[in-house]
Write a structure and sequence with these properties.
- The chain folds into two domains: 4-29 and 285-391, Aspartate Aminotransferase, domain 1; 33-281, 3-Layer(aba) Sandwich (Aspartate Aminotransferase, domain 2), CATH 3.40.640.
- It contains 13 helices and 15 strands.
- It has helices at 4-8, 32-47, 51-54, 60-72, 85-99, 114-127, 167-176, 196-199, 226-229, 268-281, 286-307, 333-342, 366-381, and strands at residues 11-12, 18-19, 28-29, 79-81, 105-109, 132-136, 149-155, 180-184, 203-207, 220-224, 312-313, 325-329, 345-346, 348-350, 354-358.
- The strands form four sheets. A seven-stranded mixed β-sheet has the order 4-10-9-8-7-5-6, with helices on both faces. A four-stranded antiparallel β-sheet has the order 11-12-15-14, with helices on one face.
- The structure holds pyridoxal-5'-phosphate.
- Pyridoxal-5'-phosphate binds next to helix 5 and helix 6.
C-alpha cells in the first residue's frame, strides 16, 4: 500500500493552490532543490569533468531509466533517458518502420498529440520511401488494423480527452496483422499501471516532466522490447549510442542493448531533478495509485455534473476507459480556466473548448477535489469568467 498523505508531504505546493495540472507539468518535490544543488556544487563544482565517472553522470540515463521501467512494466535494462519526447517519437518510429520494410502504412488517431504526428510526417518525408500516415478516429483504430499496416503509433491516453486505449488488445491485433507498435506514454507513465512486458509492446516513449515530476525540460525516455533491440538501427546515430564512444571511430557501430538509443550528452542537472522525483516514485504501488486516481476522477465528475450544467463531460465516463485526467467542454473554456486559476484552482485549456484537469494522487486528495469543485461551480454559476481580463490569450495555455 502507498501512503498518499505521506507522498503529499514530499511536495512543495504553492500556498492555497489546488494544482490540477500535474498531467502537464508536475510540481516540485521538496528534495529536488537540495539534490540539484548537490549536482551543481559538489558534483560539477568539485569534480568538474571527472563527474562523468565519479558522480555517475554517464550511467544516469540507464540507471534512472530502470527506475521508470518499474512504473511501466519494462524489463530491466530496456529503458534509456535523453532528448525530448518529440525526438524519442521520431527515433522509435524510425526503428519500427525498419522492422517492417515491405509495408508502408503508419496508423495513428486524430486524438494524438500534434507533435507525434508532425514528427511522423517529417520522418516519412525524409525517408522518401512512400510511407503513408493514416489518421483515424480513436474509436476506429482497431478496424483499420490490416495486412497493409507497418506501424501502429498511438498515445495510450489522449492528451485532450483522457481517452485510454487498450494497449494489450491493440498490440495483439497489430501483431496478428504483422505490424509493430509504438506507444506514447506521455499521459500514462505515473498516471496508471502500464505493463509493456505483459502487453508484448514493441516500442514505447514518454516524458518525465508530466506525472513523473522531474521539472520543466526534463528528458524523455524510450523503451525497446528485448526481442527487437539487436535489430534496431538508430536513425539518430549519435556518438553516445556508439558501441565505443571514446574510441572516436569514424564508422558508426550501434552500442549493445538500449544504450544505442542514446544520442548525445545527457542533461545531467535535469537528471538530478529526476533522481529526486523518482525517490518518491520508488515507494509507490501503481495499483494503489490507479485506485486512488479513479476515486478522485469519479468524485470530480459527480461533483461538477451536479453543480455545473453548462459543462459537458468530454472524457470517457467509464473510468476503465480513462486515464488520470478529466476534461469538460465549454464554449468559453479559455476564459473559464483563467478565472479558475485566478481563484487558485489550476488546470489548463486545450483548443478549441476543453477545460482539462489532471488528478495526481501523489499530492491531490479528496479534500482538494471538494474544494476545487466548490471553486469551479462558483466561477461557472456566477459567470466570473465573463471578464475581459480572462479572455487575453497567453502564449502558453
Ligand atoms: C506532452 C507531449 C509531448 C511533448 O513533447 P516534447 O518533445 O517533450 O515537447 C509529445 N507527445 C505527447 C503525446 C505529449 O503528451
Amino acid at each position: 500500500m502507498t501512503d498518499f498523505a505521506a507522498t503529499k508531504a514530499l511536495f512543495h505546493l504553492p500556498e492555497g493552490m489546488i494544482y490540477l495540472d500535474g498531467n502537464s507539468l508536475g510540481p516540485l518535490p521538496k528534495a529536488t532543490a537540495a539534490r540539484v544543488e548537490r549536482a551543481v556544487t559538489a558534483e560539477w563544482g568539485e569534480k568538474v569533468i571527472t563527474g562523468w565517472n565519479r558522480a555517475g553522470w554517464m550511467a544516469q540515463p540507464t540507471v534512472l531509466g530502470d527506475r521508470i521501467g518499474r512504473l511501466i512494466g519494462a524489463e530491466p535494462g530496456h529503458v534509456v533517458l535523453g532528448d525530448t519526447l518529440s525526438i524519442k517519437v521520431f527515433q522509435a518510429l524510425a526503428a519500427a518502420i525498419d522492422l517492417v520494410p515491405d509495408r508502408r502504412v503508419i496508423l495513428t488517431d486524430n486524438g494524438n498529440f500534434p507533435s507525434d504526428i508532425y514528427m511522423a510526417e517529417g520522418l516519412i518525408k525524409s525517408l522518401g520511401r512512400g510511407h503513408e500516415l493514416r489518421i483515424v478516429n480513436p474509436e476506429d483504430v482497431a478496424d483499420h488494423i490490416n495486412d497493409d499496416l507497418a506501424v501502429l503509433m498511438l498515445t495510450q491516453v489522449g492528451y485532450s480527452d483522457g481517452r485510454l486505449h487498450d494497449m494489450a488488445d491493440l498490440t495483439a491485433k497489430a501483431h496478428a496483422a504483422g505490424a509493430v507498435t509504438v506507444w506514447d506514454l506521455a499521459h500514462s507513465a505515473g498516471a496508471l499501471a502500464v505493463d509493456l512486458q505483459g502487453c508484448n509492446a514493441d516500442f514505447a516513449v514518454g516524458c518525465t516532466y508530466k506525472y513523473l515530476n522531474a521539472g520543466p525540460g526534463a528528458p524523455a525516455f524510450i523503451y525497446v522490447a528485448p526481442r527487437h533491440i539487436a535489430n534496431c538501427q538508430p536513425a539518430l546515430s549519435g556518438w553516445l549510442g556508439h558501441a565505443a564512444p571514446f574510441a572516436f571511430d569514424l564508422d558508426y557501430r550501434p552500442g549493445t542493448g538500449i544504450e544505442r538509443m542514446r544520442v548525445g550528452t545527457p542533461p545531467v542537472l535535469q537528471m538530478a531533478a529526476l533522481d529526486a522525483a523518482l525517490d518518491i516514485w520508488d515507494q509507490v504501488d501503481m495499483t494503489a495509485l490507479r485506485r486512488a486516481s479513479v476515486a478522485l476522477t469519479e468524485q470530480f465528475i459527480v461533483g461538477i455534473e451536479a453543480t455545473c450544467p453548462m459543462l459537458t463531460l468530454a472524457s470517457p465516463r467509464d473510468p476503465a476507459k480513462r486515464g488520470s485526467q478529466v476534461c469538460f467542454a465549454f464554449e468559453n473554456g479559455y476564459a473559464a480556466m483563467q478565472a479558475c486559476i485566478a481563484q487558485n484552482v489550476v488546470g489548463d485549456f486545450r483548443a478549441p473548448d476543453i477545460m482539462r484537469f489532471g488528478f495526481t494522487p501523489l499530492f491531490i486528495d479528496a479534500g482538494d477535489v471538494d474544494r476545487a469543485i466548490a471553486v469551479i461551480s462558483k466561477v461557472m454559476n456566477e459567470r466570473l469568467w465573463d471578464d475581459p481580463a480572462f479572455k487575453q490569450v497567453s502564449r502558453v495555455t
